[in-house]
Amino acid sequence: MENLLAPSRSSGPLSVSRIPMDYFGESSSTSMPRHFFWECLHLDHDSAVRADVSRQNYSVCPRHWYIDATFKCPRCSKEFQFTAAEQKQWCEELGFYVDSYAKNCPACRHDERKRKSLRHEYDRDIETTLQSTDVDAKKRLATIIDDLCSSEADLPLKIHENRKILGRQIARITSKNDG
Ligand SMILES: [Zn+2]
């Protein structure tokens, strides 16, 4: 690992073309530096997929192979596979930096995306919804806050206060409509 950043022997600036042939495991996935798969529990070299490094976003170390890798999700403690196909998509289609890898399992990643999108919707709509008389919009935001509360322990106090205000507004409008 300490050799990774060693200067190249030839003169001129360090470039990938001057790095010795198998420096990052070009010939075989098994000779890729192990720290490329940091915190990984298991690597399945049999299903390794050759990468197109010209499509990768990297500074010094390209990834010549994508390897089915097993990780433990820090959120739910379940084991999951970050597959070679997913790695290829991340590095070659989505343009993610080659060092990025899936930290959480797919279910937790899905939850996290949903939570972020709810939070975004809350932040975008809360001011206008508090001012409006649209009871459905108020109910929608109240539900969003309840969902956020169930997945996030320390929401800002302001959000809890707004939840109470929404509850009172909904009760008032509903009772007015009933009476
Ligand atoms: Zn998980």
Class by helix and strand content?
alpha+beta
Measured distance between first and last alpha carbons: 75 Å
Spatial arrangement of strands, main beta sheet: 1-2-3
- Compute the CA-based radius of gyration: 25 Å
Task: Tell me the overall shape.
Answer: elongated
Q: Would you identify the regions where 5 or more consecutive residues have pLDDT less than 50? A: 1-12
User: Helical residue percent?
Assistant: 40-55%
Indicate the multimeric state.
single chain
List the topology elements.
Blueprint: E1 42-50, E2 65-72, E3 79-82, H1 84-93, H2 106-131, H3 135-151, H4 157-178
Antiparallel strand pairs: 1-2, 2-3
Helix pairs in contact: 2-3, 3-4
The structure holds zinc ion.
Can you characterise this structure?
This protein is α+β, with helices and mostly antiparallel strands and 179 residues long. It folds into two domains: 16-102, no CATH class; 108-178, no CATH class. It is 42% helix and 12% strand. It has four helices and three strands, in the order E-E-E-H-H-H-H. The protein has helices at residues 84-93, 106-131, 135-151, 157-178; strands at residues 42-50, 65-72, 79-82. It has a three-stranded antiparallel sheet. Strand 2 and strand 3 (79-82) form a beta hairpin. Helix 2 runs antiparallel to helix 3 (135-151) and helix 3 runs antiparallel to helix 4 (157-178). The protein is elongated. Zinc ion binds next to helix 2.
Summarize this entry quickly.
The protein is of the alpha+beta class and 179 residues long. The chain contains four helices and three strands.
